[in-house]
Structure formats: C-alpha cells, structure tokens
Write a structure and sequence with these properties.
The protein is of the alpha+beta class and 140 residues long. The protein is built from 2 helices and 7 strands. It has a single domain, classed as Umud Fragment, subunit A.
C-alpha cells in the first residue's frame, strides 16, 4: 500500500514538473494591449516555438529593453515569409519577414513598444503564446 502511494505521489510530482515546463502564468503590466488586455490581467501561456505561432495570437517575448519588465506581450502581426506590415516598414529594410523573425504589434499603438520601433523580433526571444486570460490578480 505504501509503495503504491509513493508511486502515485512520484507520478503527480512528475506531472507538475512537466506542466510547469510547458505552461506559465504571465501578468500584464501596462496598457499596450488595451482594450483586449488590461494592467493586472493574468494570462495562461504555453511555451512554444516560432513554427507554432499564428497571426493574431498574443505572444510573450523576452523584452529587448534593458529597463522595465522582463517580457513584452504583443499581438503577432506577421511571420516569416509574410509581407512586412506598412506601419513597421520605417523600422525595417525588408519587404518580407525573414526566416527566424516575426513582427509584433500592441493593440494600443499610443502606449506600445513593438516592431514599429524595435523592428523584427527573433525566434530565440519567443517565450510563450497566450492560451487564455485568467483575470486580474489584485495586489495586497
């Protein structure tokens, strides 16, 4: 009986480790994705790679800015092989998104640091893709 319980606990621990490796909860900071996302919203996100991204999804990337949040949360606007969106053309020299790169744009253009300023994001900077909004988590 003890052995069965120990095996069950070990299996549960392994499952938790695997889930934590695949999924992450990210908290939104700022209003760059308003009205879709608000400051304080929590997002369930799945770690992924560039080939799994689709236009319109909300991606989480490592921030290229040295000051501020560790992550940026933006909407995927173009993937490798797609035409570069018009509003991003001032920041990049290409007409087509090159391999290993992608374009991210915040829904709230006036409050967003994204590909319009930064240019392309690199596949290595991709952290996760949002699955669903969990809701706000209030500070205490």
């Amino acid at each position: 009986m003890f052995l069965a319980a120990a095996c069950g606990l070990a299996a549960l621990a392994l499952l938790v480790v695997r889930l934590r490796a695949a999924y992450v909860v990210i908290r939104v900071r700022g209003n760059s994705m308003a009205p879709a996302l608000a400051h304080g919203d929590r997002l369930l996100s799945r770690r992924t790679h560039l080939a799994a991204l689709r236009n319109g999804q909300i991606a989480v990337v490592l921030s290229p800015r040295p000051n501020g949040s560790k992550f940026l949360i933006k909407r995927v606007a173009a993937l490798p092989g797609d035409p570069v969106p018009e509003e991003v053309r001032e920041a990049v020299a290409d007409d087509v998104v090159p391999a290993g790169r992608f374009v991210l744009i915040g829904d709230n253009a006036e409050a967003s640091f994204d590909s319009r300023e930064h240019g392309f994001f690199h596949a290595d900077d991709l952290h996760a893709v949002t699955i669903r909004k969990l809701g706000p988590q209030h500070d205490r």
